[in-house]
Amino acid sequence: MTLTAGARAAVCDTRTEPARWVRPAVAVLLAATAVLYLWGLGLSGWANDYYAAAAQAGTQDWKAWLFGSLDAGNAITVDKPPAALWLMALSGRLFGFSAFTMLLPQALMGVGSVAVLYGAVRRVSGPAAGLIAGTVLALTPVAALMFRFNNPDALLTLLMVVAAYCVVRATETASTRWMALAGCALGFAFLTKMLQAFLVVPGLGLAFLVAAPVGVWQRLGKLTVGAVAMVVSAGWYVLLVELWPAGSRPYIGGSTDNSLLQLALGYNGIERLAGGGGPGRGGPPPGGPGDRHNLFFGGEPGIGRMFGESMGTQVSWLLPAALIGLAAGLWFTRRAPRTSLVRAALLMWGGWLVVTAAVFSFMDGIIHPYYTVALVPAIAALVGISVRELWRRREVLAPRAVLAAMSAATGMWAVILLARTPDWWPALRWVVLVGSIAVASILVFGACRLRRVGVVVICAAMLFGLLATAAYTVETTAATHGGPLAVAGPRSADGFGGPPPQGPPGPPSGQRDNPALERLVADTDTRWAAATVGSMEASGLELSTRASVMAIGGFSGQDNSPTLEQFQAYVADGQVRYFIAGGHGGPPGRGSSTAEEITAWVQQNFTPIDVGGTTVYDLARPPA
Questions:
Q1: Contacts of 94 (CB under 8 A, 6+ apart)
Q2: DSSP helix, strand, coil percent of the chain (3-state; round to 5)
C-alpha cells in the first residue's frame, strides 16, 4: 500500500521515538486515573440494585449470565443486552461477589478508556495532545460517576473509544483489518446498550471515507467490511436469543413480544427518540415533580439541553472549548491534503460529538443525565487535538486568538456552572474566572511565543481550564450514588446532584430493611424464593439474601411476563414459595394487566400474613 506524502509524514511523525518525559507522564496519568476511580470504590454499595441483582444472578447460574437475567431462576432479563453484566458477573465468579468486585471492571474500563483515547489522539497530534485528551476524560464528572457505577455506560464508552482508535489506524493505511476491528467493537457496544452505540458511526465513517489513502471505491468497500463486521459481532447474539426456545430462556425484559430485536427497535430505540415509552417504563409520570422535563430526566428537549440545569454540570465544562476548537481546526485545515489525519480526526470526533449531542438534545423519550458520558471522549479528543494544533501555530495571531477564546469561554462557562451550587466552594468561581482571563490575555498579546513563558502559559491554561471540572469530579468520587437516577457533582439548592435525595422522581432504589422478611426468603430453597411486582423489592431482596426472587413484569411491572397461566403453573409445581405484596408496579392505575391479574388471583386464593410490616402470601399453603 502506497501512502501519499502527507499521510506518510503524518504517520511517521507519530511513530518517532517519544521524548523522555512522555512515558512517565502517561504512567502518571493512568496511575492517577486508577487511584481516582478505584479509591473507595465500594462507597456506594450496590449502586443500581437492578443491575447488581442481575450481576449476582450471573454468578449463580450460567444461563442467567448468558441472557442477563434479573434472577437466577431465569424469569426475566434486565431491559438491556448483557455484555456489561458478563464482565461484572465474571469478576464476581473469580474474586467472590461483592460491591467492590462488581464495580472493579467498571473502574478498570475507565482507566482503559483514558489509555485508548490517549493512543488514538497521540497518533494524530502527538503525545501532548493525547495527554490533554486523557486528562479531560478522566476529570469529567459524569465519567467519574459512570466508571464507579454499575450501569452499562462504562463498557459502552470504552468500546466506542476502541472503535475510534481502530478507525484512526484504519485511516492511516486504509487497513481492512483495522476497519473490521472497529466494526467488531461497535457490534459489542450494541450488545451493551443497543442503538446508542451507533450514534458514533457517522463520524467514524466520514473520517475514513474522506481521508483513507486509496480510491473512493476501495474506501467504500472497506467501510462495507466494517459494517458487515459490526452486524456479525452484534447479530450472533440477537440470532442466538431469537433461535433459543422461548420456554427454556428468560423473557426479554422491556420488550413487548419477548424479542431482543423488538427491544432494540422499540423501548430502547424509537420510543427513546420519539417518546411513548409508556408509563412506568423507567420514566416519570406526567405532571408534578416527576414530569419528564424534571432534571433527573434531562430537562426540556432543545438545543440548550446539553448546557441546561440537568446536563450542564455533568459534561459541558469544556464543551464550549471543544466546539470552538473544532470550528477553528476545520478552518485551518481546509486546504490540507485529502489524506490529512488531523482533519480526519477532527471530522471523526466532531461527527461523534455533533450527532450524539443533537440526538440527546432533541430526543423526546426517556433520557437521564448520565447518558452524556458518551460525549466525553469526543469533547476530550477535540480539546486535545485543537489545543496542540493551534499551539503549533502560535507565532500567528489568529491561532493565539482562538486559544484565548477557548480559555476565556471555559472560564466564564465554569463560573456559570459553579453558580448552580452557590454554597459549594464559592471562591472557586473567581479563581477560575480571573485565571482563565489572565491566560487569555497573555495568549492574545503573544508573550507565550517565548519558550519559557510558553511552558508557564500552557501549565496555567491547563490548571484554570480543568480546576472547576476536577473539583466537581473529586466531589463525585467522594459521595455515595445509588438507584437508577445517579447524578454527578455536589447537591444544588433544588436537590439535584450529589447523593440521591429521599424520594427522588421515578422509582426508588429499593424498600426499607425488613430482617424478618429477609430471613423468610433466605430459608427457602425453591426455584424462586418469592415473587413480587416489579424489580425494586425483588432486586434488594436478592442482594440481601442471595435467593432468587421473581420480578413480575420486569423493571417496573409493565412487561407481560409471566402470564397468569404461567404463574399458576409455577405455583402448582412448587417452584415459587411466597408472593410479596406492595412491589413497585408503576404509578397507581398503570400496572400491567398481567401483574394485576396475578396479584388479584393470589389475594383471592391465599391467606395473607404479616412479616415485619410487609404483607406476604405463602403460596404453598392455600386456605382450606
A1: 101
A2: 65, 5, 30
Strand arrangement of the beta sheet that strand 549-552 belongs to: 549-552, 528-533, 576-580, 614-618, 608-611
What are the residues facing 615 on neighbouring strands? Answer: 610
**Residue 176: CB partners within 8 Å, gap ≥ 6?**
170, 222, 225
Domain ranges across the chain: 395-494, 515-618
**32 SS3 class:** helix
What's the rounded Cα separation, in Å, for the pair 418 and 140?
14
Q: Strand pairing partners for 532?
A: 551, 580
Buried b / exposed e along 28-65 (16+ C-beta atoms within 10 A): ebbeebbebbbeebebbebbbbbbbbbbbbbbbbebbb
Question: How many degrees, rounded to 5, is the angle at CA 77 between CA 76 and CA 78?
Answer: 130
Each residue's pLDDT tens digit, 113-162: 999 999 999 999 999 999 999 999 999 999 999 999 999 999 999 999 99
Give the integer Cα–Cα distance in Å for 95 and 379.
Answer: 35
* Grid coordinates given for 287: 405532571
Closest CA to 154 of 118, 101, 193: 193
Q: Which residues contact 465 (CB under 8 A, 6 or more apart)?
A: 318, 321, 407, 410, 411, 436
Question: pLDDT, tens digit, for every residue of 489-513?
Answer: 887 655 566 655 443 434 443 456 8
